[in-house]
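Lecture notes, structural biology module. Today: joint structure prediction for complexes of two components.
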Amino acid sequence: MEKRGIIGDLPDNVITIILMVIFSAFLFVFVGQQKNGAGIWEDVYAKEIAQIINLAEPGDEISIDVHYATEVAKKNKVQDLKSVIKFDNETKEVVVKLRKFGETRFSYFNNVEIVNSRIELGIPTNVLKFRIGEAQEGEIGRGNG
Amino acid sequence: MDNLNRKAEAVGNQTMWVWSMFLLVIAGGGIAIGVMIFYGYEYDLKAFEAGVLSNSISECLREGAIDFSNEQNFYSKCRLNQKVLSEEYNTTKLNIRICKNRCEGGEIVFQLGSDFESCDFIGKNEKYQKCTRSFSEDYEKKRFEIIVGSNHLIRRSNKL
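The predicted structure, tokenised, for the full assembly:
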């Protein structure tokens, strides 16, 4: 007598349906992750914030609504929502991290220092606040030339 | 004969099963590739960034004298970070050309980068830089043409 096992005993159309369901589930998860769009939103926030800095003058106080960015980060299981957007004053880059693994950086050419940057949660939305300061000694720029 | 018919039926069923799986993979793969193309596209602010840099240079030309022979004087007066623009930190791709009167036949007083040919390839390829051309006068009413091109890209990492 031929032994076919559990799968072998199932009719072909049932196996086809099971495989279709598994395949569709993978596809839904993949499309869902892409639609959630951490990558594209990191890109958008990094570039827009860099342009705001490029247009700013020392002494400016800037507040930006980053509620959607924090929502995307939360969906992607990022723990520390207060550090989803940071500034690297050394390399003059905006650093946006809306996913667990990885981040996106975009540089600004305005020779300024970003001071006192923080994300204030729930006032009533989540807001990124920072101040534009003069570039420090030794850096080349209009403020100290 | 009956046995032969059953074998043929089994072969036919298997063929149809492989065919339906093939169609599923093709359809699913098509959707996946479409979504990747749609959501994987880079947010394009190159033209805007070139405009911002061009305005920044125009403004500092109007504000006071710039000694173009001293590169650092230009960066300093215009409050531009030389290390970012000269790609010392990463792969920033910004090109600047400032000419007396006009760049066609005029004297180039300042230049950063060399790729200005691709400024003429408007709409040919999204990966080419986007440029702005503008005219500005300094505080002594001397006329300058400013060409700025941007092909500034993001830096993405996948580390923890």
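Point to remember: Chain A has two domains: 5-35, 37-144.
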